[in-house]
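In this section we walk through a basic example: taking a raw amino acid sequence and producing a predicted 3D structure, encoded as discrete structure tokens. The instruction is simple. Fold the sequence below.
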Amino acid sequence: MVTIPPKPWPTGLAEDVEPLVKRVLAPNPSPYTFTGTQTYVVGEAHGPDCAVIDPGPNEPDHIDAIIAAVAGRRVLAIMCTHTHRDHSPAAAPLAARTGAPIVGCAPLVLKSDLPRADESFDATYAPDRVLLDGEAMRGTGWTLTAVATPGHTSNHLCFALEESGALFTGDHVMGWSTSVVIPPDGDMGDYMASLEKLLAREDRVYHSAHGAAIEKPRQLVRGMIGHRRQRENQIMRLLGEAARPVSAFIPAMYKGLDERLIPAAEMSVTAHLIDLEKRGMASHKGGVWRSH
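The resulting token sequence is shown next.
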């Protein structure tokens, strides 16, 4: 288990990440968000305009901190990677204060909403423009191109900063933990395909919504793919021993897991099992899973 570092954290401070990027940490730490959600302001420090990526939770102090980081520039776009409640709820109040359009991922309304351990979806999210894979937003000295990466959520996007080779990865690839994939919207097959898509790219660095910058992104992504395949192999081995409910996988697969994270682990195993079922390798009846 990853330990959250001791305080103080740079909550509310505009940190220089690279010449075109500032980072502002939101005041929403938790076992699922690490020290909090990281909002990014992209644009020349003394230029006329900028974009805001993942405005975060609707917390007045955080919105004030974003406005301070904008430093008088025109906000051309408020861009959301996905619509979990720690990422997009500040979009509307920030748009009201800046006049900027909300741009990025599509809105998402689930037909069913199973109990979930991660941040739930933001039903208030209403974009002015949805970016498709490969579409871009441009400002003075900066270009942000959408990279569709479904899996963590079906509407997840990353944003590539073309001028510097940086990729803003939201929750798809994070600097502190693997991403949680939670059905019914999260899809393990899509998630693995999105990781393979990033592995084929040549981004210089990843800036995620939680945790430190990722300086060796392809190495990390390769490791994440290996980790997920290892989990799948564990599940298949356990199914080979005996049919079992999801809860019976956790003690064998997650040693010393914080009890608060057990629901997330169960959802992750469920996502793997659903993917295996789609591939004809497992099935379930009455809550009990078995191999084929």
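Looking at the output, two observations stand out. Confidence is low (pLDDT under 50) at residues 115-119. Residues 217-241 form the longest helix (25 residues). In the next section we compare this with other chains.
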